[in-house]
Write a structure and sequence with these properties.
The structure holds 2 protein chains of 2 kinds. Chain A is mainly beta. Chain A has helices at 257-260, 272-275, 413-416, 465-468, 491-494; strands at residues 7-10, 14-19, 22-27, 44-53, 56-57, 62-72, 79-83, 87-88, 93-95, 103-111, 118-125, 135-139, 156-162, 169-178, 182-187, 211-217, 220-233, 236-246, 279-283, 305-309, 312-315, 337-341, 354-359, 374-376, 387-391, 394-401, 408-409, 436-445, 451-462, 480-481, 488-489, 498-502, 515-517. The chains are: A mainly beta, B alpha+beta.
Chain lengths: 518, 162
């Protein structure tokens, strides 16, 4: 110090003038300078200090750092930023690296006027965070016992259900995470499932007759009571959620023919093997599993909900609130959708990879959309919940993202040129020159079938299924087979991606759902 | 394409100014199915309480039934008067047992057994010499088709059945 007062400047260009017996504040003056008569300070940088806020952040998130540069005279206050990991911009915005364990990152600001003067701060990445409570672990493993053969490409979660308003609860493992359906369905003990808790039935009418539901899936259907449960997923609770308790064909009431005749597939609720899971957690882009089409707004009663009286079951209208409901939408927070996060899976597959089902979109530090491409899907018309996939110049407006499908199912051998397998594995692709590398483009659409939003190109590979099924792995990013209509982007698509599902009529940073984003 | 008055006869409406769509509501309860004769279309229409639109494509006639709940069923009738294919789309699948008739049970049996390696959670793809069935979609949006290869008229591509 030379006896002259220092000029304190921050990167935000707040200027403090301090003089003996005199202090005055000049805000926002940038490079303006005030000189006391008779004194000409020698320009120099006295010190640099750094602060970052927040000082502890999750993996991949950001922290804003600022430098306080104390200078004398007209020394420049600009600094150069650096970080020991991750990235930092010229304005001090630090972006953390992706880490699997806590990491301390040192942020340094060096004075450009005098590089011997610098300051540092430490940012902890992925360390102890306040519990977010919205992360439900998922795993792609061999499925619940008993299975004759290991399940492949099925992502499972563990859910807790309670009799509403009580602490009488049961935790059910191996519930399939399904972005292609809406609502929670659990296989009853009668069907060989884990659920033994006696969830209260939701009545169909004023006489207290039970309400049952017929749910058609790809390749089969489920039949069973609509019951109510408090549903806990991670730390999030949805109270009195209508759920389906799946019963087998041997249980009463019997499956109505008008239910089973909607598919050529079997009753998937007859056993754990038939369902391939202890239940299905439908977290697709709609609040209810049927919507207005099952209410009195439809002129015809569809064969979905049934009022089961003493002498049989008849289709009945239900209100939206009576329908089996996506439980995420009934959380107090983080209720506008989900993201599915799974690690990349190499050619040949992986064994038991794990990931996360994270609730909410843009509601917490761990579920931001970032640079994800948004693909809107219609909530009415003939392509409800569908995107447009373009492949080899042909558009397929009946395409969808379905974590509950266990491969990539598209077109046929005549269109793709990819042979199917021989024998028992015949409904899968077995390219002779494996892998086959392909590319398609996805785009959102409106209810009129017109494309909306930015198209996104997806590169993918198909390997021979007869080879993949010999590896003993449970997760395959290259497993595919023929389909019908559009592309069914099954779990193969989800590996190495973060896929968002935004629910209809719920607001998100990218506008209301329904949409997918990745 | 020409507008066709009704099933069975090949006579076309001659007035070009005729309606582009002919809506019929004929409640005739008979059985009607894949592989059956064209009159069976009316049964399906009655069963679905739907409206009917018929279109002559020269090599075959398409009858499109729209049910009250919005599901659209198309039935493809050959010049011989046989329903050689059916297709559907909508928020709910139609009654496939009625629509596929004698082919419903073979389709059920052709589904991949659960206790077999390589089970698909996927669209249904049944392709046997005597029957092709495809079912796809997800909750709130279903589509599919079925046809009997031997009954498809010459010159008609399978892709036209949709």
């Amino acid at each position: 110090m030379t006896g002259r007062p220092g000029l304190l400047l921050t990167a935000q260009k707040v200027v403090w003038w301090v003089a003996p017996l005199l202090a005055l504040t000049l805000a926002g003056c940038g490079g303006s300078e005030y000189r006391f008569p008779g004194h000409k300070p020698e320009p120099m940088v006295l010190s640099v200090s750094v602060t970052c806020s927040p000082s502890s952040i999750p993996s991949g998130q950001t922290s804003q750092c600022s430098a306080t540069v104390t200078v004398q005279g007209n020394a420049a206050m600009s600094v150069t930023w650096s970080a020991t990991a991750g990235q930092i911009s010229s304005s001090g915005l630090f972006t953390a690296p992706l880490v699997t364990s806590p990491l301390s990152v040192t942020i340094t600001a060096i004075s450009q006027w005098d590089p011997t003067k610098s300051g540092t701060a430490t940012v902890t990445v992925g360390g102890t965070q306040p519990p977010l409570g919205n992360v439900l672990p998922i795993v792609v493993d061999a499925g619940p016992a008993p299975q004759t053969f290991a399940t492949v490409n099925e992502a499972f979660a563990t859910v807790t259900v309670c009799i509403p308003g009580t602490q009488n609860c049961q935790t059910i493992d191996h519930v399939l995470v399904d972005t292609g359906s809406y609502g929670l369905r659990l296989l009853s003990a009668a069907g060989g499932g884990e659920l033994t808790l006696a969830l209260p039935n939701q009545p169909a009418d004023s006489k207290g007759n039970p309400l049952l539901e017929c749910t058609v899936f790809l390749g089969g259907y489920t039949w069973g009571n609509v019951a109510q449960a408090d549903v806990t997923l991670a730390s999030e609770v949805a109270s009195s959620v209508p759920v389906q308790v799946i019963i087998p064909s041997t249980s009463s009431p019997a499956v109505p023919p008008s239910c089973s005749s909607q598919t050529t597939g079997p009753n998937m609720g007859n056993s754990v093997i038939a369902l391939g899971a202890n239940g299905i957690l439908g977290v697709g882009p709609f609040q209810q599993d049927c919507g207005v089409a099952c209410t009195t707004q439809n002129s015809t009663i569809p064969n979905v909900y049934y009022d089961c009286m003493r002498f049989g079951c008849s289709p009945t209208y239900v209100t939206l609130a009576q329908q089996v409901t996506n439980p995420v939408t009934l959380f107090a927070t983080d209720n506008n959708g989900v993201l599915v996060q799974l690690p990349a899976v190499p050619n040949g597959g992986s064994l038991d990879p794990s990931g996360n089902l994270i609730f909410g979109i843009g509601t917490q530090s761990n579920n931001g959309l970032g640079g994800a491409t948004v693909l809107a899907v219609p909530d009415s018309g003939t392509n409800i919940g569908m995107v447009i996939t373009t492949f080899k110049g042909v558009t397929y407006p009946d395409s969808f993202f379905d974590s509950g499908s266990n491969g990539l199912f598209f077109l046929d051998t005549a269109t793709t040129g990819i042979a199917t397998c021989k024998g028992q594995l015949s409904p899968w692709y077995c390219p002779s020159n494996s892998p086959v590398n392909l590319s398609a483009t996805n785009q959102g659409q409106n209810a009129n079938g017109n494309p909306v939003g930015t198209p996104s190109t997806v590169n993918f590979s198909i390997e021979s299924a007869s080879y993949l099924f010999t590896t003993g792995n449970t997760a395959f990013s290259t497993l595919g087979g023929p389909g019908f209509g559009g592309f069914d982007w099954g779990l193969t698509f989800f590996y190495g991606r973060i896929v968002f599902t935004a629910v209809d009529n719920m607001s998100t940073p990218a506008g209301p759902g329904p949409y997918y984003a990745y | 394409m020409h507008i066709f008055r009704f099933v069975g006869n090949r006579g076309r409406m001659t007035t070009p100014a005729l309606l582009s769509v002919l809506l019929l509501t004929l409640p005739l309860p008979v059985m009607a199915v894949l592989g059956d004769n064209a009159a069976s279309v009316l049964t399906d229409q009655a069963q679905m309480k739907g409206t009917l639109r018929s279109v002559d494509n020269h090599t075959y006639v398409t009858h499109e039934i729209t049910s009250g709940s919005g599901t659209v069923v198309r039935e493809f009738v050959s010049p011989a008067g046989v329903v050689f294919g059916v297709a559907w789309e909508g928020q709910f699948p139609p009654d496939l047992q009625q629509l596929l008739g004698p082919y419903y049970q073979p389709a059920q049996q052709a589904t991949t057994p659960e206790q077999q390696q390589g089970r698909r959670r996927a669209p249904v793809v049944i392709e046997t010499p005597g029957l092709v069935v495809h079912e796809s979609g997800h909750m709130r949006s279903f589509q599919g088709r079925a046809y009997v290869p031997q009954l498809v008229p010459q010159g008609v591509e399978a892709s036209e059945i949709h």
